[in-house]
Design brief:
single chain, mainly alpha, six-stranded mixed β-sheet, 6 strands, 56% helix, 6% strand
Length: 447
């Protein structure tokens, strides 16, 4: 057992408790008389030192800061006058000061500096009173120590208020940010009533705003900029301090774990972590340094970032990102990273309209129906290699890793199966399209 824990050890002697009660009451009375004027002097000095400090009035028109200073001084004097021990601090007004600092965007450092200035000025006057009525220096030293302990308590109250305000502000910002993203990513239709189609139209990759190519419009017949959203988007963006960019890319993320910490994507990127699959809106995705920043921030995450589009076409970028994520979940696109849709255009274009491609494949590849599965696959791979190389048997053989004579045999069979149709440019295009789609699904070998 240490000396501090020994119950038989006498308590430390208090110089302040040794001051005669009459002298303590006299000190408290003089100090309380000084409180109104002292509070005014302290506030005046604080305003001179910190001229930018806002003046907040209560319902009666009195400055809240003055009320707080006065209550703090009165509370301290009354506590020490009781001589019951260290002064207590239950002044909720200082929680309000902390909340005010948080809501006005200032740090607690400035508030603590103001508190220290106030304590220094107050102590100067209390020391004069103590000297006036001849309170012993050791007692005044102990009183000074209590004053700084009291200050710590006030700071704790302010920190609590500051933390509450910061948490409330952060929650409100997230709510407003989600509302902004909902508005930004909402589908917009033209007056012509264009219908929403599956991703796959080239216009969506370039942000053209064409309602005929992608199934959606920019919201007006000629709107291609933020103004076509109306005032709502600009107002919501201003409330979260987000500057409307010309172009955006929208990402959809897959959580590495349910408790995963949000990626540090930076202030400019809007991030909604509430959704089952978090979403983000990246402003000016091609800006210098942005791709590298996102790459580092997304380490450990997987998902997809849609193509850069005009701001009014953000919903198109979202659809491509969602399509890519679905393909990742099916194992048709690489997982374990955040990929960019623009780097996987072929897969997205050929694998998304699955029903249409399959129907086209059934018609185009019908000549293979009477071949066995293995032989039919070899002929399909040879046909695709020939369509891609546009070369003779040696080039196709090199691509497939077989003998040229084998390729000549297979090409003769292909011509017998398809006849003159194999020379039609449109039919060759359709054949290459469906065969590439099959290769992407793993149904054909990769040359």
């Amino acid at each position: 057992m240490t000396a501090d824990e020994d119950p038989d050890r006498p308590a430390a002697r208090s110089a302040w408790r040794d001051v005669p009660p009459r002298q303590v009451r006299q000190f408290a009375a003089l100090a309380l008389e000084e409180v109104p004027a002292l509070a005014q002097d302290i506030l005046r000095e604080i305003r001179a030192e910190y001229p930018g400090l806002p003046v907040v009035l209560d319902d009666s028109g009195e400055p809240m800061a003055l009320i707080g200073i006065r209550r703090a001084l009165e509370g301290f004097v009354k506590e020490i006058a009781s001589q019951e021990g260290r002064p207590r601090y239950h002044l909720e007004v200082f929680q309000e000061f902390g909340r005010g600092e948080g809501l006005h965007g200032r740090t607690l450092d400035s508030l603590q500096a103001i508190y220290r200035l106030g304590v220094r000025l107050a102590w100067r006057r209390l020391a004069e009173i103590g000297q006036q009525i001849e309170i012993p220096p050791p007692a005044m030293y102990e009183l000074a120590e209590s004053g700084f302990e009291y200050l710590d308590g006030l700071v704790d109250q302010s920190v609590r208020g500051y933390a509450e305000a910061a948490a409330r502000e952060a929650g409100e910002r997230l709510r407003l940010q989600r509302k902004l993203m909902e508005l930004l990513l909402a589908e917009r239709r033209s007056d012509a009533g264009a219908t929403t189609g599956a991703p796959g139209a080239p216009g969506a990759f370039h942000g053209t705003g064409s309602g005929t190519s992608s199934g959606t419009s920019s919201g007006t017949s000629s709107g291609t900029g933020p103004a076509s959203f109306g005032n709502g988007l600009g107002e919501r963006a201003a409330r979260v301090g987000w500057q409307l960019p010309e172009r955006v890319a929208v990402g959809v993320l897959l959580r590495p774990a349910r408790e995963a910490v949000a990626p540090a994507v930076g202030q400019g990127v809007l991030l909604d972590m509430e959704a089952e699959q978090p979403r983000m809106v990246v402003p000016d995705p091609d800006a210098a340094g942005r791709p590298e920043l996102l790459r580092r921030a997304m380490s450990g995450w997987s998902g997809a970032i849609g193509p850069p589009v005009a701001l009014v076409d953000a919903a198109k970028s979202l659809r491509w990102a969602e399509a890519a994520v679905r393909l990742m979940e099916r194992g048709l696109l690489p997982s374990g990273e955040v990929l960019h849709c623009t780097e996987h255009t072929e897969a997205l274009v050929l694998l998304q309209p699955e029903e249409l491609i399959e129907d086209l494949a059934r018609r185009c590849l019908a000549p293979l129906d009477h071949c066995g599965p293995a032989h039919g696959r070899r002929l399909a791979e040879t046909l695709l290699a020939w369509l891609e190389t546009r070369g003779g048997a040696p080039e196709v053989a090199a691509r497939l890793g077989v003998h040229p004579q084998t390729v000549r045999y297979r090409l003769r069979q292909i011509r017998e199966l398809w006849g003159d149709e194999i020379d039609d440019p449109d039919r060759r295009f359709e054949l290459e399209l469906v065969l590439r789609a099959r290769r992407l699904r793993g149904l054909l070998g990769r040359a």
